[in-house]
Amino acid sequence: MEPYSRRSWIRKNLALAVIGSIDPVLPNINFVSGQGKFQLSMHLSLQNPDRLKICRQLGVTHAITGAPFRGIGRDQYEAATKKLRDDFAEAGFTIAGIEGHPVPFERIKLGLDGRDEEIRNTNAAIEALSKAGINMICYNFMAGLGWYRTKFDLPERGGALTSEFNMEDADKQGLTQWGEISEDQMWENLTYFLERIIPVAEKFKVKMAAHPDDPPISPLRGIARILISADNFRRLMNIAPSPVNGITFCQANFRAMGENIYELAREFCEQGKVFFIHFRDIEGTAEKFHETFHDNGPTDMARMLEIYTKAGFIGPIRPDHAPTLSGEDEQSRGYGVQGKIFAFGYMIGIMDALNIPFE
Questions:
Q1: Tens-digit pLDDT profile for residues 329-349
Q2: How far apart are CA 210 and CA 265, in angstroms?
Q3: Of 20, 93, 181, 346, which sits with the fewest C-beta atoms within 10 Å of its C-beta?
Q4: Residue 37 neighbours by CB under 8 Å, 6+ apart
Q5: Would you state the torsion angle of the CA atoms of residues 105, 319, 54, 96, taken in this order, to the nearest 10 degrees?
Q6: What is d(CA 306, CA 292) in angstroms, rounded to the nearest whole number?
């Protein structure tokens, strides 16, 4: 007989429950959830009404979206934000946070002339979001390159297509237009940013949730990456100590770092520093990995959800980077809807089985 595995037991019994064989009740395991609630969230745009409708049908209640500030002046930020909030409310969603830089941000990360104007815009965006009741921004500090993959059509289970990062292939592409940027310079740029942003975010009670570098490897095509370890995140939080200076806990990135993500999730959640969770998994290391389905990667996903709730996490959680299933546009590159439907079903099944509250 196979040794007992909580994750395999949940998956087996939830599957049996679907066909009416048994109830999905865990055997003799005391899982008492914390008092917090997960806000089931999806990265949504009002320009895609079909996806909005599907998410409502799945029971998703919260939206993660982009900010509405592109191409307008700071004096228009407040009105644009309130319209965004009201439009999502009319569609049945509460905005749980903004993902991606609310305004252009690249000069800040690269330390270029003009970064002070970008900081003024960012602070104005923070104020406007706060006044509309939106209190979380997921940002990254990946200069020159965003999240980065070298392949998007790697076959996964059943021929589904997934993305891959291979450091050898990245090296072949050479330096970017920005040449070489050192880690010291990146830390200087991050410090300059945090010291000018966090006081404003604290004043308006907007949580700044730093996303890990993806992939968490340095340098990448000549540009240093610094948010690539748990210690570096501790350093980030110590640069500007504040209850609003925290983390987007992207599971797969912390796994790629080689961290013990179970202990790390517990540590950061107990400190109240996890503001947003990306629920995803990978197979491999920082030098070479590929995205998996949510149910077939190496991470014990049920254990992660249990840790989050017992350690006091309250806030938005969303599935991220699912493989592209048959019939979907290959250009969806991890953001197709069918994989997300599967992921939400998997997450909700686990949370029901473990009595984890969500809305």
A1: 766 777 778 999 999 999 999
A2: 15
A3: 20
A4: 314, 357, 358, 359
A5: -50
A6: 21
Residues 138 and 209 sit within 8 Å (Cβ to Cβ) = yes
Q: In terms of pLDDT, which residue wins out, 7 or 55?
A: 55
d(CA 259, CA 249): 12
**Domains in the chain, CATH or no CATH each:** 40-353 (3.20.20.150)
pTM of the model: 0.89
Q: Which residue has the tokens 């942003």?
A: 197
Dist CA 157 CA 161 (whole Å): 8
Residue 227, pLDDT above cutoff 50:
yes
Residue 94: beta bridge partners?
62
* pLDDT for position 348: 94
Pairing of the two strands 62-65 and 94-99: parallel
**Alpha helices per DSSP H over 132-182:** 167-172
Beta strands in the chain (DSSP E): 38-43, 62-65, 94-99, 136-139, 151-155, 161-166, 207-210, 245-250, 274-279, 282-285, 288-291, 315-319
For residues 73 and 124, give the distance between their C-alpha atoms in angstroms, rounded to a whole number: 10
What is d(CA 286, CA 225) in angstroms, rounded to the nearest whole number?
Answer: 12
